[in-house]
Specification:
Length: 255
């Protein structure tokens, strides 16, 4: 394939770091995904080393291929600003500069939920929808992406809305469901509170629900009583990689 419609996406998660070259015309992987366990401790230096190994692995990556990397925290101008569920040494770490120097590629660093939102908008559940699309990822924490008329409003961090005196992700993330052994019906009550609050504040046109648990969406989405249409994400665990690649290509073009 020509390097034109291709970018490499890398998704940094709590248990694995995954990457694949993405065919941006189709929104599909152009080669099998590579996964390496997230190093422990997951310091920026250790994670960047693994990212380097993933970049090396793919022949599809040419010298001019953009690279997109997701991080589960706020990212402004390539620097990580928050670390709710990752090693605190990430805070104020300029990942972009370090990776560009090490890899010799243009690198775009983006919040994980923002990447997933962009992927679902262009290639998945939100299908180029106009209006306000709010993607939420339910996992270790709660990530959110706001997309208005196709434009990403980055770093929304609505998983940390304070609800009933607590940070919403500490009661409604899917990791909490597992930790507390909640049934889907019990968990759905917390999700009801969360999504009803979100819709009262934002009046979105569509909610897209991602994260690993979205594969079981039929067990909890039908239990929610909200006015906004709410659908499961379609790209599942590919969304971060695809969205990161898409945004990297976009940033490359705008340079
Ligand atoms: C972080 C977000 C991230 C989300 C999902 C939250 O705790 O603050 O930046 O998108 O987890 O990983």
């Amino acid at each position: 394939m020509s390097s034109k419609g291709l970018a490499l996406g890398i998704d940094v998660g709590g248990s694995g770091i995954k990457g694949a070259p993405v065919d941006l015309h189709k929104g599909e992987f152009a080669a099998d995904r590579m996964r390496i366990d997230t190093p422990k401790p997951a310091t920026p230096e250790a994670v960047c080393k693994v990212i380097g190994q993933i970049v090396e692995h793919f022949d599809e990556v040419h010298d001019d291929s953009p690279i997109g990397v997701t991080i589960p925290g706020v990212v402004t101008e390539g620097t990580v600003r928050s670390a709710a569920n990752i090693d605190k040494t990430w805070i104020d770490y300029d990942v972009k500069t370090l990776l560009q120097k090490e890899l010799g590629h243009t690198v775009h660093v983006v919040n994980d939920a923002d990447a997933a939102g962009v992927a679902e908008l262009h290639y998945g559940a939100a299908d180029n929808r106009d209006g306000l699309v709010v993607l939420t990822t339910l996992g270790t924490g709660i990530g959110t992406a706001l997309l208005y008329n196709g434009t990403l409003i980055p770093n929304s961090e609505l998983g940390h809305l304070e609800l009933d005196g607590v940070d919403a992700e500490t009661v409604a993330a899917s990791s909490i469901k597992d930790k507390e052994g909640l049934s889907y019906a019990e968990w759905a009550k917390r999700l009801q509170r969360y999504y009803a609050h979100l819709e009262a504040l934002l009046w979105p046109d569509l909610f897209v629900v991602g994260g690993g648990v979205s594969k079981d969406s039929q067990k909890f989405l039908p239990l929610l009583n909200i006015r906004t249409p709410i659908v499961p994400a379609q790209l599942r665990n590919k969304a971060g990689i695809i969205g990161a690649a898409h945004l990297a290509k976009q940033a490359h073009r705008l340079r």
